[in-house]
User: Fold these one by one.
Assistant:
Number 1:
Amino acid sequence: MNAEIIAVGTELLLGQIVNTNAQFLSLQLSQLGIDVYFQTVVGDNHNRLKDTFQHALNRSDIVIFTGGLGPTKDDLTKETIAEILALPLELHEESLQRIKGFFKSIHRQMSHNNEKQAYLPKGCTVLQNDYGTAPGCLIEKDGKIVVMLPGPPREMKPMFNNYVFPIIRSETSDIIYSKVLRIFGIGESSLEEELADIIETQSNPTIAPYAKEGEVTLRITAKCENEEEAQERIQQVEQKIRQRLGITVYGEGEESLEEVVSNLLIQKGVTIAAAESCTGGLLAEKLSRTPGISSCFNRGMITYSNESKVELLGVSQETLNQYGAVSEQTALEMAKGVRERSKVDVGISITGIAGPGGGSTEKPVGLVYVAMATEHKCWCQTLRLAGNRERIRNMTSMRALDMIRRYLIS
Amino acid sequence: MNAEIIAVGTELLLGQIVNTNAQFLSLQLSQLGIDVYFQTVVGDNHNRLKDTFQHALNRSDIVIFTGGLGPTKDDLTKETIAEILALPLELHEESLQRIKGFFKSIHRQMSHNNEKQAYLPKGCTVLQNDYGTAPGCLIEKDGKIVVMLPGPPREMKPMFNNYVFPIIRSETSDIIYSKVLRIFGIGESSLEEELADIIETQSNPTIAPYAKEGEVTLRITAKCENEEEAQERIQQVEQKIRQRLGITVYGEGEESLEEVVSNLLIQKGVTIAAAESCTGGLLAEKLSRTPGISSCFNRGMITYSNESKVELLGVSQETLNQYGAVSEQTALEMAKGVRERSKVDVGISITGIAGPGGGSTEKPVGLVYVAMATEHKCWCQTLRLAGNRERIRNMTSMRALDMIRRYLIS
């Protein structure tokens, strides 16, 4: 079965809001094994809405609308859909009472045009709105399923999960199960070449790489009759992939690199302190996003000025004079210094040129040194990054996080 | 003129990501006075992409694609569009060199399939990618404009603003000119009440408030035959609004609160140091986003642990024992301490409970103290914030930035 999502609302076409409803519904439907082939946004316009719906009916088994169920004249989703499906709108007494009750509960006078919301297509399954006034509805006609949901996410999401999901699930046989592997330290195209044979020979599960800023995710999706079979199929492919990619696979599902690193620190009880220059606190900020990190993340220092590097980290003035603030030597002394002075297990430091100014031929914008110090050793990575200040700072923080991760799991 | 936006990407249909590109482009096009009637998302599938494009060509003057320009086999936007427009793909030498240069600059080996990205439809206007590998292109054929842009927002947005916007603007008659005022420290509804009479009596320019995390933006949009007239109309309304809102108007256009504050510091040559606890470096990170800030932002300290507050900032153990780490007294000592020890003009400090854990009845999650110390005085703001850890940290950093801003312009 395939589905299509149609969001109705001029505010979307004006760019005033993002269509998060489409993402939510796509995710839910993919879990049901239903392929979403199209997402469309159309305005509150009778003709364009009509064309869009007719087009959708011709190509999709399930058509889900969000928005346009409001009380005002320009909300005409229900009227338009009912017209095309040749279903008259009838007053649904229970819904009317619910709407009246809703206004009573918030001590507001119900305006006359809210009654409009209680009129629903004849023979539809009424979907009650537990968080607002507009009821939704589900229509099954000529082998198609048409669903209308309200636009506000806080009303739409529970309505879908509680009332639509169960109905659609009961009509689907195959279930879709998917797993995401998160990878850092290899580019999308190199990764595809690395896995080319696996990706090409796989049809179920399928393997879809997706690159996003600095990292790559691999989605393994299996379509089977039951979850056990799906999980097994996925596991087999996952093993192969993990063997190929090894340590570059840092996580699964929704977990971010900073989350993985922070949780590793917490699990292993490793204390850490950071000394940052060009990233200005970005590494510390990412490390501290995870609740409970305060037990491991002792302190962070943003030593922009040379004095602060000397005062707070004990970097020697000679090193600064001889090699400069952006140098491997300074990075190493920063890492050692922050570790010793904070009395922690691991010290990490960053110094570099984020740009746009401050670059030179021998030390160009994007040159960054990331160093780590532990009880027994001290090492430094040289990064040469491209892009603007924001990207250089972000990539640096991710490379630093990955350096910590590799140390913790080694 | 009307336009249609087509985002290509299976990750969108799977609900892995939200289609923020469509919002961005819709907003830009509305500024050009172009009506966006449809936004569509379609997968990396030849036939469905073909149908979608043909359908779009029949109903829209401008069709803008995002995504599917990547190096991998499943990226086939360019190939499909070129086929329908009967334009052969030709190697664009300059783009190939740019791509090679990009990989050289990041010291990575260019994988063979990246060459694919340098093949572009014959006769198109090549749109260079300043932040990635895939060039975009603009095709004018049979009175239609077809644009292909890369999927990653950081590559797509500047490409549209710098290379596509000017071309489309030159083809539209009535120009739309708009100005955005950025406001912090007043809620959307209070702001609407404050400006109700102005907003209602205005038709050209129109005034549209929009609330986003912690701040409100006001978009003033005039539609005129020439820019001078538009600017004059806007200026008149802007004056009225600024008189009403006073100091809460912190900026214009795209400038962020952190940018405004950092630039104020740089202009006024005021040096600053920050001491953060619950925000874990977020304030420092925001302050240091602006190039050139290193001359003013001397250092930042993330003093998570009590020892670090004592050691690095000179907070007295008594204060910590008597009032606790999250208290006005501690915040004030942190601000004074970081100012004195860094020998800067202004010290700012943050201590609070970001949650989800660590709250109590008298000190609930969301309780945050932000203090400032200058040569002559020292003061503290108590914040009681709602929401999750991320929101509390972000709102805190913005309130702190606004505190600095108000001090600098007072």
Note: Chain B touches chain A through 86 residues (CB under 8 Å).
Number 2:
Amino acid sequence: MGKSTFGTNFTVTTWGESHGKALGAVIDGCPAGLPLTEEDIQKYLDRRKPGQSRYTTARKEGDLAEILSGVFEGKTTGTPISIMVRNTDQRSRDYGNIAVSYRPGHADYTFDQKYGFRDYRGGGRSSGRETIGRTAAGAIACKILEELGIRFCTYTRSIGPVSIQEFHPEEISCNPFYMPDREASEKAGIYLEECMKQQDSAGGVIECRITGVPAGLGDPVFGKLDALLAQAVMSVGAVKAVEIGDGTSVASMKGSTDNDGFYSENGTISKRTNHAGGIMGGISDGSEIILRAYVKPTPSISQPQDTVTSSGENISLEIHGRHDPVIVPRAVVVVEAMCALTITDALFANMSARMDLIREFYRK
Amino acid sequence: MGKSTFGTNFTVTTWGESHGKALGAVIDGCPAGLPLTEEDIQKYLDRRKPGQSRYTTARKEGDLAEILSGVFEGKTTGTPISIMVRNTDQRSRDYGNIAVSYRPGHADYTFDQKYGFRDYRGGGRSSGRETIGRTAAGAIACKILEELGIRFCTYTRSIGPVSIQEFHPEEISCNPFYMPDREASEKAGIYLEECMKQQDSAGGVIECRITGVPAGLGDPVFGKLDALLAQAVMSVGAVKAVEIGDGTSVASMKGSTDNDGFYSENGTISKRTNHAGGIMGGISDGSEIILRAYVKPTPSISQPQDTVTSSGENISLEIHGRHDPVIVPRAVVVVEAMCALTITDALFANMSARMDLIREFYRK
Amino acid sequence: MGKSTFGTNFTVTTWGESHGKALGAVIDGCPAGLPLTEEDIQKYLDRRKPGQSRYTTARKEGDLAEILSGVFEGKTTGTPISIMVRNTDQRSRDYGNIAVSYRPGHADYTFDQKYGFRDYRGGGRSSGRETIGRTAAGAIACKILEELGIRFCTYTRSIGPVSIQEFHPEEISCNPFYMPDREASEKAGIYLEECMKQQDSAGGVIECRITGVPAGLGDPVFGKLDALLAQAVMSVGAVKAVEIGDGTSVASMKGSTDNDGFYSENGTISKRTNHAGGIMGGISDGSEIILRAYVKPTPSISQPQDTVTSSGENISLEIHGRHDPVIVPRAVVVVEAMCALTITDALFANMSARMDLIREFYRK
Amino acid sequence: MGKSTFGTNFTVTTWGESHGKALGAVIDGCPAGLPLTEEDIQKYLDRRKPGQSRYTTARKEGDLAEILSGVFEGKTTGTPISIMVRNTDQRSRDYGNIAVSYRPGHADYTFDQKYGFRDYRGGGRSSGRETIGRTAAGAIACKILEELGIRFCTYTRSIGPVSIQEFHPEEISCNPFYMPDREASEKAGIYLEECMKQQDSAGGVIECRITGVPAGLGDPVFGKLDALLAQAVMSVGAVKAVEIGDGTSVASMKGSTDNDGFYSENGTISKRTNHAGGIMGGISDGSEIILRAYVKPTPSISQPQDTVTSSGENISLEIHGRHDPVIVPRAVVVVEAMCALTITDALFANMSARMDLIREFYRK
């Protein structure tokens, strides 16, 4: 599998650097006959667009999605969908310092170690702009899943020390942090002001809830649905931990508490609790899938930091420019996109799990 | 990629059920010329063997590894290494209840939903015995990595509420819990006694530290080293969260604290801290890789639990038999194995990252 | 993908050397609920078994298939099926000459170049015995395909200069060469007698016809069904050319002759001819798939041949031992197996090609 | 692996339809530090450009390659290289007939069967224009291989009944058919004139010779180098047979003739003949790799053909428009590209074949 390709039957290959000509994605294995327009993609891209509040970078980007292939007369054709977003706001500037020094918390040093040199403009391939391709692909996955009754609710659970206390889904799109709790969002704003005054940055937690997933997705061993989700979400830059259901807290639970008992009512089998977060033995159980991603604070801060140049000189570095004091709100849609890609791929793989259903599919 | 296959260039395919004839693994892409014996494998299998203390299942298993192919005159040949472990302790017994009911916290229900029926004997493919194949493969990966100066230190960080307070690596193999802190291990023993009395079970945390990993492993986007490690470790049954470096705690940190500053001394560039856990932008930075897996309590408990039969009858189920009150100690080597497989695969993939090194390799 | 793994959704991983302890295959992605017994496998292995006529090696091998996993109560469980065949006739012998010299037409030299050394016993991994694993896997694929109405007819089309002139399918299993023409098979016997007298060997052509394949399998670009079949069949040792439909002869045809015209009768669209061999634009068209494999003469011959030792000494080598004067008849089932694996994999991949059918599958 | 992705470590993903906005390719796994310009790509695209002689379609296409990512300061960065070619000559026209009828020899019928509908404009994804992406990727592969001393010589071996009689490599680029024999090219011209007069088309044979390939590339079983080349080349539209070395003719040879004897001279081991075409047991042997692709006649011919509409009406169809009477000359560079992609991928995979070389690479 290509290093920039994700998935097996439904795949996305992304390309592009922060300050190159364009960024994009090729989505392959998308079934034919799905209605798809550039607006469908744009809605998702707009959720990660910067410049939407004072808490995100002032960099202005149109980030307009152009569909170059794979759609004919408004429907997908089954062939690869190529989506491109031109980089329009590439200010010509002097990268002097950054070109030769290793920014703490960034991939500068590791890129140089791996490749021998790097495109230092705006982080190159390791820029947050790389997520444009994922998000565009995720928009298509969500469109497929929506037709099957699978819905996502993804939001910011905490920023720095400020966690949500209540859950009002309708509030999510009403505040700049995508928090389902207005009061928490206001506190988060105050906290971020403080961070910015200190020339510092914050991290946070993103939560993704997925309903309508049929039981049976995922495989029992390496392809466990939670394992695939973990890779998907951990591959988003700045995510340092991923958990499913009760996650880290299961470690101190007892079996009698953690186990989700089953019960039957009117012929339907359900679980009384959902500590497992919708996945048991790596396979979806039909209940809500719950996942959390822990995001580190933006590494670009303008206060002076000790670091070195590529030639080994110890220096003090101040990073000025357009940086989000927190990337969590903009990463919400990216986490959702990665989960959607994973679920879609698992849905397709699952179609050949049973001989009786294959026989029925091919009508024999 | 096969659903039971892990890796790209260095792969393992596992097979086998808890109560089938045998379990095994096929390791492919192992370089030729590695000295390898059945003892090398056995050492790792013994670390996950049950019956080693009163805190693990009394099931007696030889778990003897037999190498069936891929080794000639004591060295690997470059062709697939097939390893088999016969199931020897398959007591003939009555699975009556378990065959038709869904054990809470197990994969019974999801298997039935996915496949239409299941091998109910001992959990079938979802049994902890499935990890035999991974562990055998991990032993080979560790042997390769050892030749390259890469070393693992994997241990139990906590059991239930009992966490280690000190770190004495030499202590790890001296207590039944593989804890690097004798006092903690004693407290863990007391805690587990309590659990067993209550017919209950416990979870815990496993930590894996990897030293000697060269900078440059992993890829910038979907193939981030931490993403691959997350999939690898989350694919171990009962793991519900994975974190790298400071993990979940980065979410409440500030950038100025989380960033690892670089410094140069005698021509060597190092980091002053290692909040990142050895991976930046998805690529290893040469410092210690640190990973933690959060393991849920053993779902098999003997106290009565509410559940249903496959025909939808509400019942109370007591699970008797041979079960570990905690699986953490036995999973330590499995987590290590999965990390070793991941690192080895990343090492091989990285060999074609630079044109100058390819040229040198092929001596042009 | 592992180097010894074939397929994407339905995969086989083979392992084992000619004179190792055993050979085998792990079949993954086999749907649950397929009735499967060791006899199903054995029937296919018996078709490639040596010692069935005076024209095949006298080596006696039981080649008994043992199913080690993935089958429960007579049906596949959806988890990996591990099949093993023990090597029972490993005469202890002196490989002296062969161990240090490069047999012309064999992989001895290239193995040494690639791996630095080799298992020289009976060809090691490059032995024809490697095909045991493929054949066992193919037996399972054929069982799946049979349930969907897909049938194979595979036979020897020619041996040396002797080609079939007539086609009587019922004759195929009645002569030692699996030729559908008794007279040709008798002439082939006479030709082979001559070869053996001259201490020489012969090649031939295998033809595989597949009926009942639904239209729509295969993908338009790299995953063309004919491309996948070509890889599958060319990966069988000794095959040096693969063709589909009219194959090589299309190069000198005109478009007006090569094109297969469509016609409609009673609401069914058919083709008047089948020059294309059942595949158009890489996708099956519902008509018979026709493939031919060109097999080189057995490289092991007992007449003296010029060659070198691994230390570079020029020598004359005579290869004595148990060798088939022609491998074509034994390779017939192997070609069928590889085609069956390819078709099965394509069948599963095709299930997610259309949004309307996905919707119907998941009943939304 | 994505359906439109080729390769494992060095991959290309192509996208685009004949009459869509653009076509392109994403090349991933390209090592960092390779000098690369748009001119490098353009040189290869120009070799497949139409409108270069009276024997190719009159469609005028700039086919200008634009590199959108993965190159910085004239060198590849190790991240995906996105290449796009805009479709500039999309005449607005009436596809009436073609939109609803199945052209014989084309993929129209199979696309409808697979996807339920199709982009009928100019063949959509099944157009020869799809090869633009492959060719662009092949240009990069060739650049890598050139640095390692690996050279390609690819040419037309025959058109219709006209085969080359002599081999003058310098002649290849001097005639419109890329034949290494001027006299044959003149005869081919006369033959094609005749075809065109008859409103008919011709096929032919392409030969690719690769020198400088180190011994050791390819794997012993499914990943045989010849198997991978067969898939690569058979995936080019219109190719119906692929052969390596003596190819189909080995079937009637005897072992004593087909075997290539080794000899040693001044410490170098060589083969006296090369019937095997440079690959033994699936692994390159260091001698010239020889491959031939058999290409069918252009299916689009203007004489009336019997066919059906998608609603099942029997009709007579005349295909007018811009079509090559033979596609062989334009496919020469495509076959070369596919071979180059395969060899490059095999080169990278081979780097981890031996423990001693891995140790040396990582300098331990």
Note: The longest helix of chain B spans residues 328-349.
